[in-house]
Structures are given as C-alpha cells and as structure tokens.
C-alpha cells in the first residue's frame, strides 16, 4: 500500500512548460490514494487549463487568496492558511525560479506562497527552468537555503528543454517524483498498523415526526479527524457516523441517524475491535412515540414525551474484551476536569477526552479543539490545535495505554 493513502496533498503548479507534467503527477498522486488539492499560479494557467486539474484532482482548483469556496476553505475566512495547515504534504511541480526565490525569502504574494509559508507539512519541490536560470548563483543559493531547511528537491534532470535547448533544468518525470516522495517523505512507522479501530462521529438525531428532530451541535469534525489520523497511521478503520463527510479510501463507513441505530451498529462491531473511540455526541433522550404524520400547528402545543437512550459507552465499558482500548469523549460546559474524571470512572473507559464545548476555540463546529485527556495514569492537556493534531494526540495516548510508545 502506498504511504500516500489518505494523505492530504497540496499540489502547487507554477507557470512553466513542464506544467503539463504536473497533470500526470496529479493523476499519480490521486491513484496512490492521496486527497489532492491543486493550487495554480496565474502563470500556470497559460500552460494548462484549470479544468484539466479540476477533473483529475480531488476538489476544484484553487488560484486566489480570496477564493472562499471548496472543501478545505468552505465557510472559512482564512482558506489560504487552512490549506497549508491541513496538508500532510505540499508538492510544487514545476517549481520556477520565481517560486523558489519567493519561498526562500518568505514572500507570500499569492495563494501558493501562502500555503508554503503556512504549512508545517513536508514540502517537496520539482524545479524546472532553463539551464542558465537553474545554474544562476541566486537560484542555487535559494535551493541550498531551502534544502537546509529540510525542503525536498526532486530533479531537475538533464534533457530536452523548451525551445530546443538541452541541459540540466528539465522537471523530474512524474513517476520518479512520486517514487521519491514515497521513499523519502513518509518513512515513519505506521504505528497503528494491524489494529482494528472503530470510531463514532457526529451527533444523533431523534425524530419527533417525519420533519422534526431533536439534535445537537456536533459537527463530526473531531470524529472524522480521528478517522483520518488512524487511517494515515496504518489502522483498519470503521466509522459509524451521522454526518455526510468524505472518508479516506479503504475506510469502512456506516451511516446512522438515531442513538438506537448507533447503538445497534456499535454493539455489533465493537467486540472485534482493538480500539473503540466514542467521539459521537449520542442523544441522552429520545422521543417515546414518534408521530407518523407531521404534527400540525393548528392542533396546539404538542406534549413530547422523552425516554432515556442506552448509554453505549457505559455498555462497552462493562463488557470490554481483553486487550481492547476504549476511548470516550466528554462534552462539558463547566467543571471540565471533575466531570470528565467522573465519566471516566463511571463508564469504564481507558481514556476520556474532555472538551469545554462553550469555549470559542474548541468543541462543536470549530476546526480547532483544546482537550484534556484523562486515563488511569493521569491527565494530559492538549492546547488549542487543529482537530487533526488533537486526533494524533489522542491516538498517541491510545498507544501509550496499550503499552507502545508513539513514534
Ligand atoms: N455516550 C454514549 N451513549 C449515550 C450518551 C453518551 O455512548 N447514550 C458517550 C459519548 O459518545 C461520549 C461519552 O458517552 O463518549 C460522554 O458523552 P457526554 O454527552 O459528554 O456525557 P453523558 O454521559 O451524556 O452525560 P451528560 O450529558 O450528563 O454530561
């Protein structure tokens, strides 16, 4: 399996004749299992049409700092930083002298340079330019500077260049660039390989009548970030979710709506799992009698009788198979640590991830979270991070719980 499976890759395309090769590279990255977002510079569009990349990549091409559409930036006022922050890898192919210079100097004049400067992910450049430009001391100095900062360089190779010239400056072949990335970028151990992980995500909906329900504010973002992180780290992942979010290829996804449906699906699958993470916000109450027809206003105020749901986490905790690690979540608005400690003990979980859902940088809907992870060994505070980073911190604790140091 390619190390790129499930990775979020930003493919930056600059203006150069080798932009046509980036089309093939895009295709190879997608085929390797990556989620590829293409960022084109304005110059790149002189060489290859946006439509070509949009058709091949995982989401529409992005070009502008001020474009607020598309998966990574939807609904956000800062998509230029989000793309870089959420990436697992940024590849620029072809990388022109201008891009290399701007990146080396921290000059962020367009979306691609913003992505490069906002990311902490590995960056790989595939330079392509005329021999004279490649050999110019300023370009060579910038390349050395970037390499010194850990930026990967693939190529250029020697061969035919635009205009009939020949020499060093040709962009590496896409297959070679992919092979280099697979061999050099994601070399860390897949520390969850061999583990079966079940994650629940989203908030359940309890119907009142065919059009109304009792719901909660859970967006499913933290649960789905756990799915993505566990998959990237080599686990076989199943997600039982109430939200319509894409999952990486290879992840089994089961859609549910109500607490009862979630209970049934979790109960069926949990015994075979090594790790169960109950990140879903499961309703505590459901409607006793669901009206078969829409309740009409003209009939006056309805009385809605509620009854308790089954506590899935507590049930799992009381029948936990040997060797299974059970992770619960706690959504709290006050007394976070004390309430969470009580839940950890009451529900028989190995780990409890508590968040203050009233905070304005954590909890429901946000892309960031701040959590306290409790276990029998004590408490770990994870400061405000992206939900993907929080997911990795939770999985590190899962491994510690299982007696394996996270890599
Ligand atoms: N949970 C569950 N089944 C339920 C309710 C909650 O499995 N019927 C799980 C959640 O998935 C979460 C944990 O229990 O992992 C804690 O959920 P939370 O809503 O924080 O706490 P509750 O137990 O519902 O208690 P309260 O709402 O009173 O805080």
What features would you describe in this structure?
The chain has 407 residues and is an alpha/beta fold. The chain has two domains: 8-184, Rossmann fold (3-Layer(aba) Sandwich); 196-401, CoaB-like (Rossmann fold), CATH 3.40.50.10300. It has 13 helices and 19 strands. The protein has helices spanning 19-31, 50-56, 79-86, 97-105, 111-118, 131-135, 137-148, 174-184, 221-232, 259-269, 312-318, 336-347, 387-401; strands at 8-13, 35-40, 89-95, 123-127, 152-153, 157-160, 166-170, 196-201, 206-207, 213-214, 236-241, 252-255, 275-278, 285-287, 306-308, 325-332, 351-356, 368-375, 378-386. The strands form five sheets. The protein has an eight-stranded mixed β-sheet, sandwiched between helices. The chain has a five-stranded parallel β-sheet with strand order 2-1-3-4-5, with helices on both faces. Strand 16, helix 12 (336-347) and strand 17 form a beta-alpha-beta unit. Helix 1 crosses helix 8. The structure holds cytidine-5'-triphosphate (CTP). Cytidine-5'-triphosphate binds at residues 259, 278, 280-282, 284, 309, 311-313, 328-331, 343.
What brief labels describe this structure?
407 residues, alpha/beta, Rossmann fold, 2 domains, 8-stranded mixed beta sheet, 5-stranded parallel beta sheet, 13 helices, binds cytidine-5'-triphosphate
